[in-house]
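Internal tracking record. Fields below are filled automatically when a chain is submitted to the structure queue. Please do not edit lines marked as system-generated. If the sequence contains nonstandard residues, flag them in the REMARKS field before resubmitting.
Queue: standard
Priority: normal
Entity type: single polypeptide chain
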Amino acid sequence: MPNLFNQPLLCLLSPTAYPTTTNSSGGSIYTFFLYSPVVAFSVVSQIAKLSADKWLRLEAMFAELEDLSFDLIVAHVTDPNTRRFLSDDFLRQIVCRHVVCCAVLALHRDFSRPENRPQSAPESLADVVSAPALLRKVRDMVEFCSAEELYQMEDEAPSSSLKEQQQQQRGSGDGDSGDNDGADGSSAGEERAVHASPVPATPALSPQQSVFLEPSKQARKAAANN
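SYSTEM-GENERATED OUTPUT FOLLOWS
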C-alpha cells in the first residue's frame, strides 16, 4: 500500500467474510474484539452466559494477552511506522487488540479461510500473531471456558500462519460472503448474558470492570521506557 503523505501508516483490516456456521445480526466480530474482547470471545466461542467471577477472570486474561502482544511487538517489530503508533495509549490498545483478535481466530476451527481473518498493511504484525507464547495463552483461555471443541489445541498446529493466509488470498481472488456472528442469552441469578449490539455502546460496568478498558499499567510503563 503506497504511503502518499510520507507519514506513519498502519492499516488494520477486518475480515471480508465470516463463516456461515456463525449467526449474528449484531455487527462485526472484529469490531467487538476492538471494543470488548470478552464479548467477542464469548460470541465466537458460543458462550451465552458468564458468571460475574468468570467475566472478571476473562477480562484479566485478555489484559495479560494485550500486555504480551505489546511486549512481542516491541521485541520483534522493527518497522518504525508501526512502532510510532505504540506511543499513543488509545492506538496502542487498538493495535494490541488487533493482534489478540488475529491470534484467537487463527486457532478457531470455523475461521480457517483467509477471508475470515483480519489483516494488516504493512504485514509487520503477522509474525507476532503466530508467536507460540501468545497462542499458548489463548489456549489457556479456551480451556478456562471449556470451549476446546471449537479451537485447535496444544497437540494440533494452526492450519497456516496469517502471513501464509494473506499470500494465498492475494493469489486467489475468491471470497465467500458470510453472515456476522452473535450470541444471545438471558440473565439469571449472578450470570451475565452476552449480547452483540449493532452499534457498540458503553455498557453498565462496575468500577472493577471499567478498569479493563484502559491501557494496562505494564503497557504504559513499557511505552514510557521507549
